Amino acid sequence: xxxxxxxxxxxxxxxxxxxxxxxxxxxxxxxxxxxxxxxxxxxxxxxxxxxxxxxxxxxxxxxxxxxxxxxxxxxxxxxxxxxxxxxxxxxxxxxxxxxxxxxxxxxxxxxxxxxxxxxxxxxxxxxxxxxxxxxxxxxxxxxxxxxxxxxxxxxxxxxxxxxxxxxxxxxxxxxxxxxxxxxxxxxxxxxxxxxxxxxxxxxxxxxxxxxxxxxxxxxxxxxxxxxxxxxxxxxxxxxxxxxxxxxxxxxxxxxxxxxxxxxxxxxxxxxxxxx
Length: 275
Prior knowledge:
The chain contains 7 helices and 17 strands. By secondary structure, the chain is an alpha+beta fold. It folds into 2 domains: 2-126, no CATH class; 153-268, no CATH class. The strands form 5 sheets. A 5-stranded antiparallel β-sheet has the order 10-11-12-13-14. A 4-stranded antiparallel β-sheet has the order 1-2-3-4. The protein is globular, with a radius of gyration of 21 Å. The N and C termini lie far apart (50 Å).
């Protein structure tokens, strides 16, 4: 095999620097723990999976920060604007399935994309921890929370310690696809209007549900990566523009030392146009 040097490959919202080699048939391999793995097998290992369902493959493409557009059968590279086929067929065309091998190979060999990812890594290492890109919103407005009346049920008390509120079902986008969750909005008291998600018998915040998970802390670069990956909004440095209602959500922390995801994630659960 011929050594091709180092490349950068994205898995979720993390960038990995890998060593790449090319076989005689021009197939690319990635060196990992002393083994030479094909890009798709390496990708599965880094994602913690043995295989992916068709829905998981589609959602992987939908959340891929290296892609600027996902069509029915193709994905568009954000750097070079090339269209890569991601759907194959068998049984004489009667059955189709997603095949990400060509897309991963392109990500490793696209010079424009590799330059873009190198600049991204360099910017993360050079800027202060959590510092956002400098860009001012032109029309930042406050969100007017509004719950859809459909499926809404007023409750008196629940196990999470919330005395009164309104529960309904709503859709949200996670790393595993679009899911239906139970949303709760406080109706009275000091926390009126606060949104929580009911999951596993617990009442948790949108930030905990969509971003933190089991973690208690995060870095500024992780927050920026998350916001850049979220296809429901357009990350603009100091604000996120909702693709549903075009509202600009300020994400600067009050101490100006980074960004906060809370206002944006709360908006995702109350925006009717996004729903």
